[in-house]
Amino acid sequence: MTFIKKSIFIFSLLGAITASAQSFSAKVVDKKTGEAIPFATIETGENQGVITNEDGFFTLSENNERQPQDSIYISSLGYARKGVLLQHVTENTILLEPKEFEIKEVFLTNNPLDSEEIIDRVKENLDRNYSTGLSNKKVFFRQSDFKKMNKIDFGFQKSSIEELNKELMDSIALILPKTASHYTEIAGNIYGDYTTPKLHIDKAAELYDKSKDLSSEALTDRLEKIFKENIKPNSYLKIKSGFFGTKVDLEETDNESQDGKMIQIRTENPDDAPTLLTNQKERIADIYKQLFFNEDSELDFLDKSNRYTFELKDYSYIEDASVYIIEFSPKGKKDFKGVLYVTTDDFAIVRLEFDNVRPLKKFGMFGINYRRSIFKGKMLFGKDQNGKYAPRYIEIEDGSTFGIERPLKIIEKNKHVKGRRKQNELSLELNIQGASRVKYELVVFASETISQSTFNAATENTNVKATHLSSYDPTFWQDYTIMEPNKAIQAFKVIEE
């Protein structure tokens, strides 16, 4: 992600068009109320544009536009579309006028479709309305990870390892970070369809505090370092439990273990770690999978429409197109509720807001529990060069809670002794409770249809690295059009101790 120091927050909002600063920044607000308008569409050219963030801000970079324009068009749900000449803008606030709705009575008399009939037509027109072919999309992708440890109790029982005593285990619990946030941002191009995309990253940034990394790899590294500093030379540790971390090798043991399985801590080969490109491509593929017209999507309100209730609530406009506003909710044990915005002429869903009403997954066994409690988001679509609809903005938030309550044994072994390798043993009763949440934001600034040969020729830069930032640098993305960071990102700063 992109990040900002509070002291220079105002600087990022003062967009100006000058010879030295190739960018334009502004805030879109409601003319009557003065409230920010989030997720408004800023059209900069044919099949090009950007989206305002949740605080109503956007920034355009002239250097990142394929065909720089001297004017833009701004539209949002329920507002009149507005054209703006950039050279005439003297303030960083753009006002949108709410659009009066005069279509309700027309639809009630001339096209009296009920909600079920509208949904049937949406399903009938899916193949006709949505673009699923090969394309080249200029994108900006932001991943925000948040982790919180609500409880860390090692539950010291006994130890024959002098250095690994209760005082040490209590001190480890105290120094482990309790909260952490990690932001990753990339700008680049996605080639292909929604199943096998290629990704070329032009630039990337990561904002996080390395001392507060709560990933399983980072925690394993911390514990391994502490243990190695407190045991005898030439000794190594084995951990016996039903809970396996991500950085351990499973191996069959000899007659020492009654359970038949043991775990040995090891240091991973850095060459085996997933690359930035691999991680980000997998995350984007996961997001594409959730598009409601994909058969593998968890959003099943169309595929299982007979198990949802639909209610026509109102009418509105999006980019001068009239839309039905339909709310949906589950019957019985289905998972989602939300709002659909469906065009009245071709019955395309051009905006979707959804939220889960119950945990999507639950697990509890052998002292380990997991609950996927959050899955919500929004999707905005616009027409491409072929007149079909394609994503302009996708936001998905996925959150879970987890817990471990089970015994754990840490066994010190030594290969350089005669007889049994087992030297000492530490017994714990773990009680660890935490939560994690990740938010994905994918913005498509420009899109064009490509041929199979163009897709085949597209390359990926597998060795690309992200620049680590300890606080937001408003100049980092100055040559790129991105989705403006929210206030939480702008305020992020690593505090040096």
Describe this structure in words.
The protein has 497 residues and is mainly beta. The chain folds into two domains: 6-100, Sandwich (Immunoglobulin-like), CATH 2.60.40.1120; 135-298 and 360-465, no CATH class. It has nine helices and 23 strands. It has helices spanning 9-13, 104-110, 115-124, 126-129, 166-175, 216-228, 276-289, 452-457, 487-490; strands spanning 23-30, 41-45, 48-51, 57-61, 71-75, 82-85, 93-96, 135-153, 156-159, 179-192, 198-208, 235-240, 248-252, 261-265, 308-318, 321-330, 336-343, 349-356, 361-365, 368-383, 389-414, 422-449, 467-469. The strands form three sheets. It has a 16-stranded mixed β-sheet that branches. A hairpin with a 5-residue loop joins β10 and β11 (198-208). The longest helix has 14 residues, at 276-289. It is globular and about 90 Å long. It starts with 8 loop residues before the first helix and ends in a 7-residue tail after the last helix.
Question: Which descriptors apply to this entry?
Answer:
globular, 9 helices, CarboxyPept-like_regulatory, signal, mainly beta, 2 domains, 497 residues, CarboxypepD_reg-like domain-containing protein
In terms of topology, how is this protein built?
Layout: H1 9-13, E1 23-30, E2 41-45, E3 48-51, E4 57-61, E5 71-75, E6 82-85, E7 93-96, H2 104-110, H3 115-124, H4 126-129, E8 135-153, E9 156-159, H5 166-175, E10 179-192, E11 198-208, H6 216-228, E12 235-240, E13 248-252, E14 261-265, H7 276-289, E15 308-318, E16 321-330, E17 336-343, E18 349-356, E19 361-365, E20 368-383, E21 389-414, E22 422-449, H8 452-457, E23 467-469, H9 487-490
Keywords: Signal
InterPro entries: CarboxyPept-like_regulatory
Pfam families: CarbopepD_reg_2
